[in-house]
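Key idea: predict the complex, not the pieces.
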Amino acid sequence: MSFAWKAAGISYLKYTQICARAVRNALKEEQRLIAQRRDEQGLKFAKWESGKQGELKPIDSAMGNVSV
Amino acid sequence: MSAARWYATEASASTSGLRLSFVLPHQTIYKGVEVQQVNIAATSGDMGILASHVPSIEQLRPGVVEVIENANTTKKFFVSGGFAIINPNSSLDINAVEAFPLEDFSPEAIRANLAEAQRTATSGSSEEERNIARVEVEVLESLQSALGSK
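Result:
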């Protein structure tokens, strides 16, 4: 089976992410505001050395986040 | 394993209906609830699932999942995509990323987002942006037709 998104080089995870976002954005105001909180998920890390927190770095760009 | 083959055995008499579990990462909509029939929009085509259905795994399109609970109650959800797993014991597991009752959608938002996505699909600045917009157009058109036939 061939899918247009697959041919365009979009992974299944990214495809479902785009679909889910499109669905959330089509909701009525009330439900949309609640649903959109699920949209952005990222990961940050910081290295702790001798009891002090190092620089906080977001590492979501490598996770296939869609920038719209 | 013996080489003999059998037909799939029917579900035992105590579980005459189809047991549906319909879950999202953040919510459980149905958990082992006995229903009459479930209609799904699979990538291989639209299908209706009754008890004792042939076991199968189906990928869901962005589309409507219709749950016929009994003769009087039918509920329609729009799912963004996921999988339906039809087990041999008359149980059906549906996993989706997002699912909402049709009445939760705003026709105005769909129209506005669709126009925006269509514009980006043809005149977006990068190929990636246009491809993403094409997926969005597909989702929103499906949503629009789902609402239209409510």
